[in-house]
Amino acid sequence: MLEAVNLGCVRGDRRLFSDVNFSLQPGSLLQLTGPNGSGKTSLLRIVCGLLAPAEGEIRWQGENIKSPGEDYLTAISYVGHRNGVKEELNPLENLRISNGVAGVGISLEDAKLALAKIGLVGRDELPARLLSEGQQRRLALARLITSAATLWVLDEVLTSLDKAAVALLKTLIGEHLHKGGMAIIATHQELSLSAGSLQRLELAS
Amino acid sequence: MVIRDLTLAWRRRTDVLSTLFFFVIVVSLFPLGVGPEMELLRSIAPGVVWVAALLASMLALGRLFTSDFQDGTLEQLLITPQPLYLIVLAKVFALWLLTGVPLALIAPVLGIQFGLSSKTLLVLVTSLLLGTPVLILIGSIGAALTLGLRNGGVLISLLVLPLYIPVLIFGAGAVDASIMGFSAQANLSLLGALLALTLVFAPWATAAALRISLE
User: Domain A2-202: which topology?
Assistant: First the structure.
């Protein structure tokens, strides 16, 4: 279970938000909305432990993530504004290396399956810099399929995806929730899911 | 992680080669500029080679984290369960294999231009092999601190060059001693000590600096 307790965030001398509370049970999704600059990305980065909150804390299974242990970092998978795709490597290498560095090596077969599932068939051997923006985003999302993370943290991932990819991602999230996973997603689009419960959190400007 | 960085560098070979050519050309300019006086050349050789090595490894530093930072892979590395200390160490090691080692291996060829004896050339290679990892380790702290800043390159040099002074003194000192006919042991041991010290502390400081830069 993931909990946020009285979270506050200050960037520079501007206060983005304060007293943000939520708790996320297995099988549920939190949708984060709010105007541009309201602190959605900051909140997600706090959840990932990339940014320290000004006050309050994030608890994972009841423990503060201030010094994230191995369990928490294994449990989390983050796709942010920047895709984390190496342009010199082809999709297969990208996927296998990012998994390898994260400590969960995957076989060539698994990587191919994941790429096929995300709709990058036939692009396996192409350097990622030749892929379009949307295809690179799909490649970043392929990491979600191959990782065993229980908590998905997705920041505006629907941008630059086509309709089919958005539908695909919704299915993936649905499957993930059905398996008892959790997800936090910052997006302005409507999310209608087949499985799992949906919570909304609106950050005011 | 090491393999990852080596693969990436292989895909972008020109970066690695340009550092090496920079070193070769800077060192070769001196005999051309100073003229063929063997005595003079021999006495400036240690300083010239070491200063060139220092500048060449600083050129390479920009590559250490910048591209990973820009495409978001650095963020991903920070949230992997692997300790950041080890990730930094692996990246530094890969960069050393790509710049420090070739630099040390090509140095004897350049040393011949300065009329160094074979024994001195051996000392030169040893001192570079011991010294270049220290340069990269110290530099990685600067690279991590200046990440994401515009004109970070200039700032790195201002931050890091003063810290390079001991390495320069002991490195050039070792070669100097060997030219004079003394043992280079003392200087090489001091370089080794510097290496041990930076190996322990620098990755830790770099890891902390990376966390700050990515906040």
Answer: Rossmann fold (3.40.50)
